[in-house]
Design a protein that fits this description.
The complex is a heterodimer.
Chain A (H helix, E strand, L loop, with lengths): L1 H30 L7 H17 L4 H23 L8 H23 L12 E4 L2 E4 H23 L1 H11 L1 H6 L4 H27 L7 H14 L3 H22 L2 H18 L4 H4 L6
Helix pairs in contact in A: 1-5, 1-8, 1-9, 1-10, 2-3, 2-4, 2-8, 3-8, 5-6, 5-8, 6-8, 9-10, 9-11, 10-11
Chain B lengths: L4 H27 L4 E6 L7 H20 L8 E6 L5 H13 L5 E4 L3 H13 L3 E4 L7 E3 L2 E3 L8 H11 L4 E6 L2 H16 L4 E7 L7 H10 L3 E5 L7 H8 L8 E3 L7 H4 L2 H4 L3 E4 L8 H14 L9 H20 L4 H8 L4 E4 L2 E5 L6 E11 L2 E11 L2 H4 L11 E3 L7
Parallel strand pairs in B: 1-2, 1-3, 3-4, 4-6, 7-8, 7-9, 9-10, 10-11
Antiparallel strand pairs in B: 5-16, 11-14, 12-13, 13-14, 14-15
Helix pairs in contact in B: 2-12, 3-4, 5-6, 12-13
The chains are: A mainly alpha, B alpha/beta.
Chain lengths: 288, 415
């Protein structure tokens, strides 16, 4: 019985991790159609912000939750201004540019901080489920993923800014005709996406550790999740995370981590064969 | 990749050109003024840079030291470092380049066993001498390669008895999913059974796995006395974090054949890392006058950028270069066969890691082995086992009797 509870907890926290690392990409790729191959490095920069701040004696929660989105948001704004802005609508060029950016970030961080900065241990201790110990931080990550999703939903659905952003993404020319400057909306949306990635980096830093190359472990899964999710970026990401995260964790439990990842990829491929426009290209089409 | 006619033509011209130029190069070599080329292939970036960067620093230091002492055979040494970026394909490319373009006298490099097995056949084919300076799973039997790191009969053979004596008989193995992890887990199984214990399960993880939650639950369900890890690379360090975060450090201790080979102990906080036990043929903390003298020189030279050397990989790279240099001095030549024969004449050297002797029959080394415990970002040496011979490789490999062998033997343990 307690084993079943522990497995269930692992599935939930696996799904939550996928949601957390994918949301920033969902905004940038799902909404703006910008293929940001530097997404993993935005996570990494968030992680570095968190561990460097905490190393300087900043309160742990501020270091994890507040500083990474601010720092990476600023970096994102600069990247949008000097790089992405010139490449809107040129998908292949964007891929190349952001891939270069990702290499530059990895190299730059390695040069500046090296690859040996001491990380932070996960706070919140552990609790017992029967004879099993579970990290308290896992549950915190679940709560954080729910909070992030809710926040995005509220902003997009109930605020004028969210309405303008959605309108501009749907039809930039019409938005411009109505007096909305699309440039500024794109810039702000990209910044928000980067800030979300930064927050994700800060959140996963205590469990995954922080290295200049950590982004590579997450980027593929984030893209698979967002693409499988399809057009409705928030609902799609959540549904896809739920599905893929559960498949990954269940198969990892039943067999090995290798087959867990194989199962995840098989499910994603089959889904995209049946639903080329992603899950929300077919179902829940009117969702956000 | 497609090859255009123009490219093919260029290559042909280049090849023709270099054939013509070859006598000129040889003449220059005869003059003795041009540098001896040594190639290093270590990952300076990517997930394996946690091992690669200290190794490169030590190779640089060793070459500088030799050059300051007047070079070799009156010629300066030119070190060419390649960064394969934790990518096996680049390893094969750079090994070919080292042999054909650079005409290297020796190649030092390879970190994972996968990278070694990728470049070993290439360097064999091009008859370029190869030094592999990493602790690994043992069994390589090839006259062209010298393996200067420790192997399971030296390290696992000390680690497992420590675990069984202090923590209990039954263990759970977590290992990296490639030849090193696969073979090393067999060795761990063998020694655990010899000690009267059981291996409850072996889990393998690809090098980019960062979520160990399911594995940690499985281990708890199996209730082992200890966990033995043969995990490799930056991503796998998450295992130790998540283990500590689940509050398991106090209930089930961890020993490892790899922990400390890179900068694991620096990356983890003391709450996460302290108490993890490993066995290697060197730790930066070993307390000998030779080691202290080395560290003083190393830090004076590298300044504040000096990396933490951790366990043996970086130090074995330093020793590997010096063993090769000794071979060259004895052979009075950089010719491959002459150097191999000189190295097989029984070379023994006092090093910062203690006495290291090259075994002519296996091309492996007899070394001192240390069992140590991670403490406050470093290691505390617990036990010392002087002069351990490479018995695992020696049981299957005799290059004196079969000089033409070029293969890797695997231990046969049924799991």
């Amino acid at each position: 019985m307690d084993y079943a509870v522990v497995v269930a907890l692992q599935i939930v926290s696996g799904v939550a991790t996928l949601v957390i690392v994918s949301l920033g990409l969902a905004v940038v790729f799902g909404m703006m159609r910008v293929i940001n191959l530097a997404h993993g490095e935005f996570l990494m920069l968030g992680g570095y912000t968190a561990i460097l701040a905490s190393g300087q004696g900043v309160n742990l929660w501020i270091a994890i939750l507040v500083l990474p989105p601010i720092a990476v948001g600023i970096i994102g704004a600069v990247v949008e201004r000097v790089l992405i802005r010139r490449l809107y609508g040129r998908m292949i060029d964007t891929m190349l540019a952001t891939w270069g950016l990702s290499l530059a970030f990895i190299g730059g961080v390695t040069m500046l901080f090296g690859n040996s900065v001491t990380g932070i241990s996960a706070p919140l201790g552990s609790f017992e489920v029967g004879r099993f110990h579970v990290a308290g931080y896992d549950l915190f990550l679940v709560a954080a993923s729910v909070a992030m999703s809710l926040a995005i939903w509220i902003v997009l659905k109930f605020t004028p800014a969210g309405l303008i952003a959605r309108g501009t993404m749907q039809n930039a020319e019409m938005a411009a005709a109505l007096g909305v400057p699309p440039d500024r909306v794109y810039a702000l949306t990209f910044t928000a996406g980067a800030a979300l990635s930064g927050l994700a980096g800060g959140l996963i830093a205590p469990v995954s550790g922080v290295l200049p190359t950590m982004g590579t472990a997450y980027i593929a899964k984030a893209f698979i999740t967002v693409i499988t999710g399809g057009a409705a970026m928030l609902t799609g990401t959540l549904v896809a995370s739920g599905l893929l995260g559960s498949v990954l964790t269940i198969f990892t439990f039943l067999t090995t981590p290798v087959f867990g990842e194989v199962a995840l990829l098989v499910v994603a491929i089959v889904l995209l064969r049946l639903l080329p426009r992603g899950i929300t290209g077919r179902f829940l089409r009117r969702a956000l | 990749m497609t090859i255009s006619r123009r490219d093919a033509l260029k290559t042909a011209l280049l090849a023709a050109g270099s054939t013509l130029a070859a006598p000129a190069i040889m003449r220059q070599a005869a003059l003795g003024a041009d540098p001896i080329k040594v190639v290093g292939i270590h990952d300076a970036s990517g997930g394996l840079d946690i091992y690669g960067q200290p190794m490169i620093a030590c190779l640089d230091f060793a070459v500088d030291e030799a050059n300051a002492a007047g070079g070799l055979l009156g010629r300066p040494i030119e070190l060419i470092n390649y960064d394969p970026q934790s990518n096996i394909q680049l390893y094969t490319q750079f090994a070919t380049q080292a042999a054909t373009k650079d005409k290297a006298a020796v190649v030092h490099g390879g970190i994972t066993s996968a990278s070694r097995e990728a470049i070993r056949p290439i360097l064999d084919r091009f008859k370029t001498l190869y030094f592999y300076n990493t602790q690994y799973e043992g069994g390589v039997c090839d006259r062209n390669i010298f393996c200067t790191g420790s192997t399971p009969a030296q390290n696992v053979n000390k680690l497992v008895p420590y675990v069984q004596k202090h923590w209990g008989k039954n263990v759970y193995i977590v290992a990296a999913d490639y030849n090193y992890g696969q073979i090393t887990s067999k060795w761990i199984t063998k020694y655990v059974r010899e000690g009267g214990g059981q291996v409850l399960s072996v889990d393998f993880f690809p090098l980019d796995v960062t979520n160990f939650g399911p594995a940690i639950s499985k281990i708890q369900a199996a209730k082992p006395d200890a966990v033995i890890s043969a995990l490799v690379g930056g991503a796998h360090i998450s295992f130790y974090r998540q283990w500590a975060a689940a509050g398991l450090k106090k209930t089930i201790p961890i020993a490892s054949t790899t922990f400390g080979g890179g900068n694991e102990s620096v990356l983890l906080t003391p709450e996460e890392g302290d108490g993890i036990v490993s066995a290697f043929s060197y730790f930066q903390e070993i307390d000998t006058p030779e080691n202290k003298a080395f560290l003083e020189k190393f830090h004076a030279k590298m300044g504040p950028k000096a990396p933490y050397l951790g366990a043996e990989l970086a130090m074995r790279t330093y020793i590997g270069f010096n063993l090769w240099a000794e071979g060259v001095k004895r052979a009075k030549s950089i010719d491959r066969m002459a150097v191999i024969k000189a190295l097989e004449s029984g070379i023994s050297m006092d090093t910062p890691a203690g006495k290291t002797t090259l075994d002519p029959k296996t091309h492996h080394t007899t070394v001192d082995v240390f069992v140590a415990e991670c403490a406050n970002h470093g290691f505390k040496v617990l036990e010392t086992f002087p002069q351990q011979p490479p018995l695992d490789t020696a049981s299957v490999c005799d290059l004196a009797a079969h000089p033409n062998e070029a293969k890797q033997y695997e231990v046969d343990v049924k799991i």
